[in-house]
Structures
1.
Amino acid sequence: MLTLSVGTLCGVVGGKLLAGAETTMVNGLATDSRAVTPGAAFVAFTGENTDGHSYLSAAIEAGARALLVTREDEGFLELVATSRRQDVALVLIDDALAAVQTLAAHHRERLACPVIGITGSTGKTTTKDFVRSVLGTRLKVVATDANRNNELGVPLTIMEAGAETEVLVIEMAMRGTGQIAALCDIARPTAGLITNVGVSHVEILGSEEAIASAKGELVRSIPERGRVFLNGDDGWSAVLEETAGAAVTRYGLSPECEVRAEDIVVGEDAIASFTLVAEQGSASVQLNVPGRHNVYNATAAAAVGLYLELSLEDVVKGLEVATFTKMRMETFSSASGVLVINDAYNANPTSMKAALQTLAEMRTTGKRVAVLGDMAELGSLSELAHFKMGEYLAELGLHALVTVGARARRIAEGAIVAGMDAAAVRPCSIAQEASEVLDDLLEQGDVVLVKASRVMELERVVEGIIQPHV
């Protein structure tokens, strides 16, 4: 973890020591007082709804040795002076985010382990989870937790790594041009993996070409002695490969991929098994997460593991025991006997189609029900993309569709136009309304998929399935 003296900390971030000693040692860093561990630095962020400066006392009680503040206040000085602990330092900084990023960059310089950067339009979190599991069979891994994949989360993840860390896995999100490049400047990845290029964020970047270029910032950041991993079945990979200064490994399904899946079989529970083929040999793999599309995520992780010289046996073990971030194809049965596929964390046309295909492939004695919400950030493509999704859904022969949100209503319209029985389509405005519809619709033995962009908060629908309204 981050370890340095307060004096060094001040020098790195250009801070002013207001109280305490330069010799005080800091171990770790937190931006939430509830996450402070003894000896850590606490950085007080000021946001729209909360002010970290209000939690300085809580940080001290939790064991913080350094408080980084963005304004001078006599109350802060008094708080430190009257604290029962005498090892607390108070440091004035200009910008909280810049300070965290600068400290992370400083810490990264002292790490000797490989750093794997992962981005893509879909599948990056699940791929990260696969990579962490594969590498974890033999190596001490620090990896992005939950959704800490942005300009704050990436630095915090970097500072969790220490001398004992053997590989650091960083998931990188992107909302605009230059953002991944900025994250790479801090993380300095030695290898980079792109899951695919799709139309997510087209509202911000304007075109799929611009999205590919933005994702390609990771490719261009990898040093010559590193490695780039690309989806061999994605149409943009050839373009991205041309920009790579490092060697490229392709993964996927096509024979041209150096690491690939063959003989894919999807079982009654929509879980895929396949033969993993690489230069090192071949082996059978049985995944434990539903969805044919997860074969791509698995082969991506396998490529990384083999690059870092893990055995084929260890790679297979890691793939088969992987656990995943919540709300990503999370499956469970409700008390009423309904099988729920909770994929409510995010959505774009590619990932929604994959989730719907998974639903269609699941064997059930009951109905297959899709609960779909708005897909955000599609810009001018939004109307058409949602309508086309409805057409695609109708082709799958699902038994019922419930939509949530104004944009998702176009999914309902597309499904009806494509031949789905209008009586089986229920457009809703909000999650509460959808929950009430599902109370009447779902029965024991049914399978229901819940998917939408995060802004729709459709986990409320999942909660409603667990505890139906009365």
2.
Amino acid sequence: MDLMPIARILAVFALVLLVVAGLLFLAAKFNISLGKLPGDFVFKRGNFTFAVPLASSLLISIVITVLLNILLALFKK
């Protein structure tokens, strides 16, 4: 059984987690709070709260897409 493909997949996941952790540290350092961006909606009524983080979800999706495309381009060579 060839373990090289599994090792590459694990390495990619580790790199992605490392980059995400770095971005979270930077967001904390520059006081960027996800979930409170313009476009994130919070509805409160009594003791019920409903949050719809549209802008935060879009931002996270774009960042992850760009990072994965970069990583896949690097590993494709």
